[in-house]
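Database export, one record per block. Field names are fixed; values are copied verbatim from the stored entry.
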Amino acid sequence: MPENKEAPILVAHRGHAAVRPENTLAALQDAVDAGARWLEVDIQLCRDGVPVLLHDADLQRVAARPEAICELEAAALDAIPANEPGRFGARFQDARIPRLRTFAAWLQAHAEVRTFVELKQESLEHFGRARMLAACLEALEPAAGQWRLISYDYDVLLLAHAAGIRGLGWVVRGFDPGIAAQARRIEAAWLFCNHERLPPGPLPRGEWDWALYEIADAGIARALLARGARWLETMHYRALAAALAREAV
C-alpha cells in the first residue's frame, strides 16, 4: 500500500489524557480546544445500569478506591473525585466520572465534534450485551449522528449491526484472514489496533480504515502514515498535532 497522501486524522484518546484525567469532561474539552474533532471514550455500566465514561472495571487508578464500577450506583460517583491521584496528585479534585448521557449533551453542544464510543468487555460480560447496548444507545440519543460504536467484543458489534447500526469499529489484537472476514461481516468501517501488534510493512487493505494507537511520538506517526495509516489515536493531542503540523510546512 502506498503512503496515504490524505491529511492524518488524530483522535484524542480518552480526551487530552496526557494532561487531564482521562475520560473526564475537562480532558475532552481540552482536546477540542486544542483542535481535536474526533474523540474516543470508554464506557462501563454502574450497578443500576447507567453507562458512564470509565476505562477500567474499578476505581483504583482513577480515584484510588477499590470498588468495582458494577458495585456502585451512578449517584454515588457524584461525590468521588476521578482525578487520577497517581499521575496528578491532589490536582483536579473537581474531576468526576461523567455519565454517558451528560457527555452526549456536551457533544450535542459541539456540533463539529465526533466521537468513538468503546463498549468495555467487563460490563458487557457482567450485564449482558443486549442490555449494555440498549443503555448506551438510549444515552446517546441527544447526539445522534455524532458517535460511532467500537469494541473489542465482536458479539456486541454483531448485535449492533443486526440492529441497523453502521460505521462500526472493531478493536482487534492483530490481523489475519479470519479477522478480515469477520470485519466484512459487520461492515466494519474501522479496525482499531495497537500499532505494535501489526506485522511490519504496508497495512493490510480492506473496506475499513485502520485506527492505530497509542501514538505519542511524531516519528512513529510518520512511519505509520508511510505504511498507509490515516487515523491515529493519541493521548498527547496538542503536542502530536503541533509536531505533525510543523513537518507539513
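Remark 1: The longest strand covers residues 38-45.
Remark 2: The mean pLDDT is 96.
End of record.
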